Amino acid sequence: MSITNHFVVDCLEYSRPSRERFLEWNRGGIDCVHVTLAVWETARETLSVLGQWNDLLAENHDLIELARSAADIRRISQANKTAVLFGFQNTAPLEDDVRLIRIFADLGVRIMQLTYNTQNSIAAGCWEDHNTGLSKHVGTSFVREMNNVGVLIDLSHCSERTCLDTIAYSSRPVAITHANPLEYVGTGVELNRRPKSTQVIRELADRGGVIGLSPYTRMLRDGLNTTIDDFARMVLWSVEKFGVDHVAFGTDFYTGYDISAVRWWRAGRWGRESPVPIDADAPVVEWPAWFHSPAAFPELAEKLSAEGLTDSELSCVLGGNWLRLFDESFWPLDESESR
Predict the structure, then answer these.
(1) Which of 14, 77, 104, 255 could form a disulfide with 109 if both were Cys (CB 3.0 to 4.6 A apart)?
(2) How do the domains of the chain map onto residue ranges?
(3) 3-state secondary structure string, the chain?
(4) What is the pTM of this model?
């Protein structure tokens, strides 16, 4: 079996971008990668990150190209390049200004996560004990605008109630780009607030959404000891539980950073220390031996095929499900379709 027979999407990576990373995508046969532009960055800081990415796109035009639509992704893939999708892992760059959703969408941002772990004016994140969910006024306004503009909503780091509220309120399907099922991995994983409940994933699927499963060891039942067979079993379990049309991949792969970046992701400017302990003596991140980088996608595809996924099912899980959701999501609603 060749992975070239299938469309491959990795719906979340946050490595420090470089030509080395882009060559890995090429070796892995990856047609599209959703990259993170911002977590706690302000609007101005995010514009600088966009500028840096524009330079990278120009310098590496033989390997990558920005995609603004599902049609762009298909065209870029046909040219043997990897399509880059811009996204936020938080709404911090919007600075509570609903009009900035359209501004950033015009600049190519196609996916936005409502909150990164903590409470903001839009919604509650997964670290919050007092789970207020989607804000009645601010949150619903931002969800409506994202729906209308054509920005796909991501719930990966959101709380249980925020997920359920947003899935119910959104007029369009939403995504969990990178998380694992809580029922499968259990509460003993290191980042035990990140996995999603069966209720959340089922309601997401019922509304046409997709969840991206991740080999990130801090969200796996056996952590660093997780084998490719273990991971394949989780994929097959998820397909059986939630349906083959709603399971895909968002690896959350990152590399090229030191511990200061982890502190930034976990505490931003709002805290001096991360509320989730960081071991400064441990590696910034470790990946399972079989998933050394996204170049490992062909091996994973072969394992899933050997474990019983049919060719059509594999096409769905490797990227077809994301492509379908992008087709449905990356265009603005006209006035007759909006709330």
Answers:
(1) 104
(2) 3-329
(3) CCHHHCCCEEEEECCCCCHHHHHHHHHCCCCEEEEEEECCCCHHHHHHHHHHHHHHHHHCCCCEEECCCHHHHHHHHHCCCEEEEEEECCCHHHCCCCHHHHHHHHCCEEEEECCCCCCCCCCCECCCCCCCCCCCCHHHHHHHHHHHHCCEEECCCECHHHHHHHHHHCCCCCEECCCCEHHHHCCCCCCCCCCECHHHHHHHHHCCCEEEECCCHHHCCCHHHCCHHHHHHHHHHHHHHHCHHHEEECCCECCCCCHHHHHHHHHCCCCCCCCCCCCCCCCCCCCCCCCCCHHHHHHHHHHHHHCCCCHHHHHHHHHHHHHHHHHHHCCCCCCCCCC
(4) 0.96
